[in-house]
C-alpha cells in the first residue's frame, strides 16, 4: 500500500498546534480504508467493534475491544468494518508529553518500538478501567481547571502503564536513574531527526560520538548507559533506527535510492546499499519492489 502525505485534518491540526492534545469519544459508521500515511502525532485508541488497521506492512484485525498505540514513525490507515464502531481516541504531540519527566521517553517505550505488537485485546475488567480513564479525561478537559494539561498527562501515563503490565515481565529491566536519564536524552535527540521529509535536510547525528558531543558527555559514558538500559550498543540503536527510516522511505516515499542514501547521511549510494544489506539481508531495491 503506497503512502500518501497525510497530516492531521485541519481542525485536529489546529488543536494540536495550539495545545498539542485532544481526547474524544468516537462513534463512526462503516467506511472504506482511510488514506495511508504517517501522522505527526501519537495516538492511543480504544477500539470497540470490528475494524482493521493497515499498519506498516501488516494488517491488524481489531474484532472486539482493543487498545492500540501508534506514532509518527510508522504509516497506517484505518478501515471500519462494523456498521457502528465506537471507542475513544487520545492524540498528542511529543511537546505535550515532555513535561512528564517520570515517563520514559515514548519512543523508547516498548509500546512504540517498531517490532512490537501495538494492539492489546482487553477483557471486561480492563475495558472498564481504560474506559473510566478516557471518560474522566473527557470530563476534566471541559473544565477550567488550571492544571488540566498535567492531569491529561497523568492519565496518558496511567493508560500506558496499564498496557505495559499486559506485556511479559521479561521485556523490562531496572536501570539506574542516571543511566535512564542519559538514554532518554539520547533517544530524544535520535528521534527528533525523524520522520525525514525534506531532501535539503540530511541526517546530522549519525554516530555515538555525535550524540555524546551534543550531550556534553564522554562517548564511553553514553555507551555504558545505553548498554545498561537497552542491552544494545549505541551504534546498534542508531543503525536500527536509520534502517527503520530507510525501509519506510523505500516503501512509501517517491525519492530515488540515491536520494534516500543522501538524506540518511551516506556519501555514496553503494555505502548505503552495503549498510542496508548488512542490516536487513536485502538490498534497498528489494523493498522498492515489494
Description:
The structure is a single chain. The protein has 2 domains: 10-171, Regulatory protein AraC (Jelly Rolls), CATH 2.60.120; 177-288, Arc Repressor Mutant, subunit A (Orthogonal Bundle). A hairpin with a 2-residue loop joins strand 2 and strand 3. The chain has 11 helices and 6 strands. Strands 1, 2, 3, 4, 5 and 6 form a 6-stranded antiparallel sheet that branches. The longest helix has 19 residues, at 234-252. The protein is α+β, with helices and mostly antiparallel strands. It is globular. Helix 5 (177-191) packs across helix 7 (219-230), helix 6 crosses helix 7 and helix 9 packs across helix 10 (269-280). It has helices spanning 10-18, 94-97, 124-141, 148-165, 177-191, 208-215, 219-230, 234-252, 257-263, 269-280, 284-288, and strands at 21-29, 42-55, 58-70, 76-80, 84-92, 119-121. Residues 197-290 form the HTH araC/xylS-type domain. This is HTH araC/xylS-type domain-containing protein. Keywords: DNA-binding, Transcription, Transcription regulation. It comes from Flavobacterium frigidimaris. It holds the Pfam family HTH_18.
